[in-house]
């Protein structure tokens, strides 16, 4: 595999041609193979998989912002050295990005998002306006309310109705959101499925937040948690991604179209959905839009 001659402008840009799971953000997904360094470039010897045909590939690391290592991958120390030198992030992830096993440090030249994030979070007025923007995206319109507790209450009512509507769409008997953190398996099947789907979508948000160098602890809607901002981003996709994943899995199990456990069925659907809908790149776009950061032009 050789790099294409022209790259989309921008620090996180990467031409997608002939590169698996790549987009303008420079995300590169690899699975079932060994990553090493040969003659100063990355080399990936791949087994046959859904993401890539079996073969020996050269990876143009200069145009890659973040390498996502999926199941069945290994790498040499030289890979870490080369990527660290050139500011290329490496993260170990679940298939399709449904899990995030590492929290890589920010790469070189990625302070624009972090600086905008910190500035908006530190200013109470900007923090509220950013939270209102997040709520506007969820509701599809800008709400006039300027009190965060009022916005949270409105969002709670919207989610309660959304659970009911999506459950009806999939023909699922819904009795309300219930979750015992000390005994998660005690919940009914729909609630278990939502727990798993939410975990997978949050992992995708973890990857997106790390890819742009945003600050996970500094949330605008969520507070206190060490990944509060990750939860802010994941919640943007709760109605359109998380709930359909969960209720679709329950429907398949109840109709005996799947003999998998609820966790495995949700995971299977999440892998397919994340790839089909390009969920992580969409999250990255939202983060940069939230902070008014545009890296598509210039020579950064």
From TrEMBL:
<dbReference type="InterPro" id="IPR050646">
    <property type="entry name" value="Cas1"/>
</dbReference>
<dbReference type="InterPro" id="IPR019851">
    <property type="entry name" value="CRISPR-assoc_Cas1_ECOLI"/>
</dbReference>
<dbReference type="InterPro" id="IPR002729">
    <property type="entry name" value="CRISPR-assoc_Cas1"/>
</dbReference>
<feature type="binding site">
    <location>
        <position position="222"/>
    </location>
    <ligand>
        <name>Mn(2+)</name>
    </ligand>
</feature>
<protein>
    <recommendedName>
        <fullName>CRISPR-associated endonuclease Cas1</fullName>
        <ecNumber>3.1.-.-</ecNumber>
    </recommendedName>
</protein>
<keyword id="KW-0464">Manganese</keyword>
<keyword id="KW-0051">Antiviral defense</keyword>
<dbReference type="GO" id="GO:0051607">
    <property type="term" value="P:defense response to virus"/>
</dbReference>
<comment type="subunit">
    <text>Homodimer, forms a heterotetramer with a Cas2 homodimer.</text>
</comment>
<dbReference type="Pfam" id="PF01867">
    <property type="entry name" value="Cas_Cas1"/>
</dbReference>
<keyword id="KW-0479">Metal-binding</keyword>
<dbReference type="GO" id="GO:0046872">
    <property type="term" value="F:metal ion binding"/>
</dbReference>
<keyword id="KW-0378">Hydrolase</keyword>
<keyword id="KW-0460">Magnesium</keyword>
<keyword id="KW-0540">Nuclease</keyword>
<feature type="binding site">
    <location>
        <position position="155"/>
    </location>
    <ligand>
        <name>Mn(2+)</name>
    </ligand>
</feature>
<dbReference type="GO" id="GO:0003677">
    <property type="term" value="F:DNA binding"/>
</dbReference>
<dbReference type="InterPro" id="IPR042211">
    <property type="entry name" value="CRISPR-assoc_Cas1_N"/>
</dbReference>
<feature type="binding site">
    <location>
        <position position="235"/>
    </location>
    <ligand>
        <name>Mn(2+)</name>
    </ligand>
</feature>
<keyword id="KW-0238">DNA-binding</keyword>
<dbReference type="InterPro" id="IPR042206">
    <property type="entry name" value="CRISPR-assoc_Cas1_C"/>
</dbReference>
<dbReference type="GO" id="GO:0043571">
    <property type="term" value="P:maintenance of CRISPR repeat elements"/>
</dbReference>
<keyword id="KW-0255">Endonuclease</keyword>
<comment type="function">
    <text>CRISPR (clustered regularly interspaced short palindromic repeat), is an adaptive immune system that provides protection against mobile genetic elements (viruses, transposable elements and conjugative plasmids). CRISPR clusters contain spacers, sequences complementary to antecedent mobile elements, and target invading nucleic acids. CRISPR clusters are transcribed and processed into CRISPR RNA (crRNA). Acts as a dsDNA endonuclease. Involved in the integration of spacer DNA into the CRISPR cassette.</text>
</comment>
<comment type="similarity">
    <text>Belongs to the CRISPR-associated endonuclease Cas1 family.</text>
</comment>
<dbReference type="GO" id="GO:0004520">
    <property type="term" value="F:DNA endonuclease activity"/>
</dbReference>
<dbReference type="GO" id="GO:0016787">
    <property type="term" value="F:hydrolase activity"/>
</dbReference>
């Amino acid at each position: 595999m050789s790099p294409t001659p022209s790259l989309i402008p921008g620090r996180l840009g990467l031409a997608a041609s002939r590169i698996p799971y790549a987009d303008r953000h420079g995300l590169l997904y690899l699975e079932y193979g060994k990553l090493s360094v040969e003659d100063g470039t990355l080399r990936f010897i791949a087994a046959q998989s859904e993401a890539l045909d079996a073969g020996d590939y050269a990876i143009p690391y200069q145009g890659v912002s973040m390498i996502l290592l999926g199941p069945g991958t290994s790498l040499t120390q030289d890979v870490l050295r080369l990527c660290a030198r050139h500011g290329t992030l490496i993260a170990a992830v679940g298939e399709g990005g449904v899990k995030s096993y590492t929290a890589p440090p920010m790469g070189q030249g990625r302070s624009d998002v972090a600086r905008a994030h910190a500035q908006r979070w530190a200013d109470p007025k900007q923090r509220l306006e950013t939270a209102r923007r997040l709520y506007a995206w969820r509701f599809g319109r800008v709400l006039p309310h300027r009190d965060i507790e009022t916005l949270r209450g409105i969002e709670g009512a919207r989610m309660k109705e959304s659970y009911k509507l999506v459950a009806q769409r999939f023909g699922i008997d819904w009795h309300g959101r219930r979750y015992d953190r000390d005994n998660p398996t005690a919940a009914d099947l729909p609630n278990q499925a939502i727990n798993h789907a939410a975990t997978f979508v949050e992992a995708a948000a973890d990857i997106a937040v790390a890819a742009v160098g945003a600050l996970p602890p500094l949330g605008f809607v969520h507070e206190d948690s060490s990944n509060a901002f990750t939860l802010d981003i994941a919640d943007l996709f709760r109605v359109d991604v998380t709930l359909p994943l969960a209720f679709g899995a329950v429907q398949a199990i109840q109709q005996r179209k799947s003999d998998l456990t609820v966790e495995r069925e949700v995971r299977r659907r999440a892998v397919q959905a994340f790839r089909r809908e390009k969920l992580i790149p969409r999250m990255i776009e939202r983060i940069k839009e939230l902070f008014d950061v545009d890296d598509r032009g210039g020579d950064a």
